[in-house]
Amino acid sequence: MKLTLFGATGRVGSEILKRALADGHKVTALQRSPKLDTHPDLETIFGNVRNSKDIERSIAGADVVISALGTDKTTTLTDAMPYIIESMKRHGINRIITIGTAGILDSRLEEGKLRYQGGDSNRKLTFAAEQHDKAFRMLAESGLDWTIICPTYLPDGEAKGAYRVEKDYLPEDGKEISTGDTAEFAYRQLESSEFIGSRVGIAY
To answer: With helix as H, strand as E and coil as C, how does 4-71 read?
Structure first.
């Protein structure tokens, strides 16, 4: 399978990349500067996700797109997502798997609201959740086969397994999930249609 991976140098993206290359997939990664090790199955394109032409070059020929782009107190995610969606449609690519945040899952406290709106989350700053919410809305209206993996508190760590997932909600009393397990679950969605058109909460 040929994959396009955005955010390949990040904490979750690098774990997804490791798994994809180990399984023999061909991966194209867009990066701003040389950070990734060379690999015979990895094609690196230097550019910026805020540039439509760089997105286009990265996506051409892919079977699936994976985005592990974060916000980092910027609008990078919401700037890039329209270009990703448009380019996927031009190239006839339907499947996209992204990493979001638990803040955009449905609230258990207030019906009709998301966690960051309904007081489920302890976070006082909502900028990141708002950015992920905008990306979620874009994907929901795109007509693509999308899945958004929504981890709660995300410490670095290896995959341990024995985590819980729930469609559109954070599993009850879920407090954290490692970067390794988040990447492992996201990567497994390449072979699964169970959560197409859904946000998926993940936690131990």
So the answer is: EEECCCCHHHHHHHHHHHHCCCEEEEEECCCCCCCCCCEEEEECCCCCHHHHHHHHCCCCEEEECCCC
Cα–Cα distance list, 2 to 19, 26, 65, 97, 156 (Å): 13, 5, 9, 14, 27
CA-CA distance, 138 to 58, in Å (whole number)?
20
Cβ atoms of residues 167 and 139 within 8 Å = no
Quick one: CA torsion of 114, 118, 121, 125, rounded to 10 degrees? 90
Dump pLDDT digits (tens) for 53-84.
999 999 999 999 999 999 988 999 999 999 99
Task: Give CATH for domain 2-203.
Answer: 3.40.50.720
Using an 8 Å Cβ cutoff, are 107 and 77 in contact? no
